[in-house]
Specification:
The protein is built from 12 helices and 37 strands. It is of the alpha+beta class. It has a domain of about 230 residues. The protein has a 37-stranded mixed β-sheet that branches. A hairpin with a 2-residue loop joins β26 and β27. The longest helix is centred in the first third of the chain and has 48 residues. The chain is rod-shaped. The N and C termini lie far apart (about 150 Å). About 20% of the residues are buried.
Length: about 800
């Protein structure tokens, strides 16, 4: 290596090298000298022929325009563009003949360089080789009537046999620097506005056709195909190389570019523009791998304002096709296609994870409806995602009419229903276990880009669901549900429900469900058929409780709540009317057990109405109608009932003896029949509050007996010491009572017994204030039951001595005295 360097050093220091170096230096100096002489000669030539050159340039330009071409000054640029002759034109203006009307100057430039071919110039010909425009404004204007200021350029003369061989002047290169370009099309309501930092173009001609590779760096101020809706790619920088070709036969410009930078993203673009007077069609196809928000922000404001409410986390493959007519008013046809794989989709109502689908946007959904927002649509196909952990599949969904968007499609879901717990901030339902399948055709409005009033048809099946309905503290286990949504009704094919001791099987329907659910839930009627192998009424009363108001802690950031799932569901449940046809094998109410129960129940605003009810209990039957409604911590009830031959002791035990302290069910036996019309209160646990009852009760006891009843035993010991008053049988025990809360008006209580006959009138109190008048014939009535007719028994009833006694309250104890009550 050192030896090689030594040889090189010796060669450079040799006399032969120095001789050749000197000659090469003289050659370079000679070339520079010739260049200077040539440029000086050109300068002298320009100064001597300046007037003629300018005249030829003006003539060349004016012969091709219909308007005014004005130059403030011009001069020759020494050495610039050598070997071409560079002429610099200062303060250039080009105006068409109608400039006084529209006031838009086609070209206004601080400087234009025109580089002329030297050999043509020496032959007295003007051949412009290159145009350089610096610090200029270009304004291309088209009026509503179709007139354009580019009409300043005269059409080319067709070649004839005489001039066919004569070469036509061509411009081989065009450079722009700091040029503001505006294309203002009032006819088509289009506005293109660019700040061109740099444009370099070298043109190759083939007869009347040409092609070029053009470098462009510009800022897009406006790319508006419809000025009403705004610009595409507004305020974005554009930079790249374009392959451009022009065909005279078709009068079409074709453009192709790859890796074109718009903003921070790269695009592959293929486009064409027809520039004939009768044909202004254009087409632009754009491909890119781009983030959703970046792509959305390249679109016009009317589209991006909507799309920016959505987002995709990862870049997506996008193809955009724009076709239209530059002379036609309105938007061009726009079709955007995207292929999304394993992405995250954010919508105003939530987040879709593991999201894959193919999407298409078009502003010409129905071809005959034009290119506009009402006819725009987003079509999603093969959609798969998880929404709040719930897996969803949508074969096709369409969001139609972006002015008033409506979404339609078919969704399939198969998931564990515990995943529903994350869907709502306000907790109404809490699912512990169970599985759901759904196949639903949906339609919903999109208001301010939020889902509004979704309407569904299809099937839903839920198996083995265990959940809590929190507003009413209801816990359900192993619930199965089958629902069928149609346009006419919601059919409840099957609900199997278990809550504590209650087992319920339900089917039914809700007519006009889709319309009433949102617009008039208070008019919704739910028709249920309920079969209960076993039901506890006291537990069931919890369903009627009004939902408790829950205090919520305001978070710092509040996400807009989709009211349609949680709040609307809660509103519907509380406002709708439920009509229930009930059949129960076994019903329990405290100690009362009933069988073969049938009734029609109507639930309205937390009020339960019972109609045409029948049941069997205590060896007899009861027919009833009634109503139960929550009121504070109690329930208000009203009832009409016909009791037929129930065992009176068992019946009294079932209702805790109605709060009567003076005797217990063990004191009485027989078969009770009665008619009652009663109102009153129940406790929060469903127990009767006896002193709240009001109404009328008529009753009769057959095969009755009174056993060890203390008040009668006291009377017997006082009046009939030799009769068996501890075991009294009745041939007649009937009465009519008015219930007034704590007190009962006994209008007529008739007792015909084996010991004595007794008539009772007055007031009986569950607390203080008892005042009863007793009419007691002293004759022995033991054999009255043997008399054949009622008239005979009545005729002998009050023979002999009759006692008049008063049973009254004395500091909480029952006392007896002589007298009649009406004389007190």
């Amino acid at each position: 290596m050192q030896q090689t360097l030594l040889h090189i050093k010796n060669f450079l220091q040799s006399d032969s090298f120095k001789k050749y170096a000197k000659r090469f230096g003289f050659f370079i100096l000679g070339l520079i000298g010739i260049l200077l002489i040539a440029c000086g000669a050109l300068s002298i030539y320009f100064n001597q022929n300046k007037a003629e050159i300018i005249a030829k340039v003006n003539h060349k330009i004016n012969e091709n325009i219909n308007g005014k071409f004005h130059i403030t000054d011009f001069h020759y640029k020494f050495l610039t563009g050598f070997p071409n002759f560079t002429l610099a034109l200062k303060d250039v203006e080009v105006k068409d003949n109608q400039w006084p009307i529209h006031k838009h100057t086609l070209l206004k430039a601080n400087e234009i360089e025109a580089r002329l071919n030297i050999w043509s110039l020496l032959q007295k010909e003007i051949n412009i080789h290159k145009i350089v425009i610096n610090d200029a404004q270009i304004y291309i204007y088209k009026a509503e009537n179709g007139y354009s200021n580019v009409n300043i350029f005269k059409p080319k003369k067709k070649k004839t046999a005489s001039n066919k061989e004569k070469p036509e002047t061509t411009i081989d290169q065009i450079n722009l620097s700091n040029v503001h370009v505006i294309i203002d099309n009032h006819l088509g309501h289009k506005l293109f506005d660019f700040d061109v930092a740099s444009l370099d173009s070298k043109v190759d001609y083939d007869d009347d056709n040409w092609n070029t590779n053009l470098y462009l760096k510009t800022k897009i101020n406006s790319l508006a195909f419809n000025t009403v809706h705004g610009s595409f790619a507004k305020e974005k920088m554009l930079e790249g190389n374009f392959d451009i070709s022009y065909s005279e036969a078709s009068q079409k410009i074709d453009i192709k570019t790859q890796k074109l930078k718009i903003g921070s993203d790269a695009f592959d673009i293929v486009a064409f523009f027809n520039i004939g007077k009768q044909n202004s069609l254009f087409g632009i196809n754009i491909e890119s791998n781009i983030l959703w928000r970046n792509a959305s922000n390249l679109l016009s404001a009317n589209i991006s304002s909507k799309l920016n409410q959505f987002d995709l986390k990862k870049p997506i493959e996008v193809n955009c096709d724009i076709k239209g007519d530059l002379n036609v008013e309105g938007d061009p046809k726009i079709v955007v296609q995207a292929d999304i794989r394993n992405n995250e989709l954010t919508i105003p109502d939530g987040l879709f994870t593991n999201c894959s689908f193919k999407g298409i946007f078009t502003n010409n959904f129905k071809p005959e409806k034009g290119f506009n927002d009402p006819n725009s649509a987003i079509v999603l196909t093969h959609f798969k995602a998880e929404y709040e952990t719930i897996p969803l599949q949508i074969q096709q969904a369409i969001i139609n009419n972006l002015e008033k968007p409506i979404a339609t499609g078919i969704v399939n879901a198969d998931f564990d229903i515990s995943k529903l717990n994350k869907m709502s901030n306000e907790k109404i339902l809490h699912f512990e276990s169970g599985h759901a399948k759904a196949n639903l055709k949906f339609q919903f409005d999109i208001v301010d880009l939020y889902i509004n009033k979704p309407r569904v048809t299809g099937e839903v099946a839920i198996d083995d669901a265990t959940f809590d309905y929190l507003p009413k503290s209801i816990h359900a286990e192993k619930t199965a549900v089958q629902l069928s949504f149609t346009e006419q009704a919601l059919y409840i094919k099957k609900i199997a429900y278990k809550h504590k001791k209650n087992i319920i099987r339900i089917d039914g329907k809700i007519d006009n469900f889709l319309n009433l659910y949102y617009d008039a839930p208070e008019k919704m009627v739910v028709n249920w058929n309920i079969y209960c192998p076993n039901i506890d009424v006291k537990q069931f009363l919890g369903v009627l409780k009004n939902s408790q108001a829950r205090k919520t802690v305001q978070k710092k950031t509040v996400k807009k709540q989709n009211v349609n799932f949680t709040n609307q569901l809660k509103s519907v449940i509380e406002k709708c009317t439920a009509v229930i046809n009930l059949k129960a094998d076994k019903i329990t109410y405290g100690s009362l057990t009933a069988s073969n129960t049938q009734a029609t129940l109507q639930m309205l605003n937390s009020k339960l109405l019972l109609k045409n009810g029948t049941l069997q209990t205590s060896g007899g039957s009861i027919a009833f109608n009634g109503a139960i409604q929550p009121s504070g911590n109690h329930y208000i009830f009203s009832s009409t009932a016909q009791v037929n031959r129930v065992d009176i002791a068992s019946f009294l035990r079932s209702f805790n003896n109605f709060g009567i302290q003076s005797f217990s069910p063990k004191n009485i036996r027989g078969r009770l029949s009665s008619n009652a019309n009663v109102t009153g209160l129940m406790s929060s646990k469903g127990d009767l509050i006896v002193n709240s009852m009001r109404g009328k009760l008529d009753f009769k006891v057959n095969q009755g007996a009174l056993l060890n009843f203390e008040p009668i035993m006291k009377v017997g010991k006082f009046a009939f010491p030799f009769r068996d008053v501890e075991n009294i049988t009745f041939s007649d025990l009937s009465g009519s009572l008015n219930l007034r809360g704590e007190q009962i008006d006994i209008n007529k209580l008739v007792i015909s017994s084996s010991v004595l006959n007794l008539d009772v009138d007055g007031i009986y109190s569950f607390g203080r204030g008892t005042n009863l008048a007793l009419t007691v014939p002293l004759r022995n009535s033991k054999n009255d039951a043997k008399l054949a007719t009622k008239e005979e028994r009545k005729a002998v009833r009050e023979r002999g001595i009759v006692l008049h006694l008063i049973a009254y309250d004395n500091e909480g104890k029952m006392k007896i005295k002589w007298g009649k009550r009406d004389k007190e």
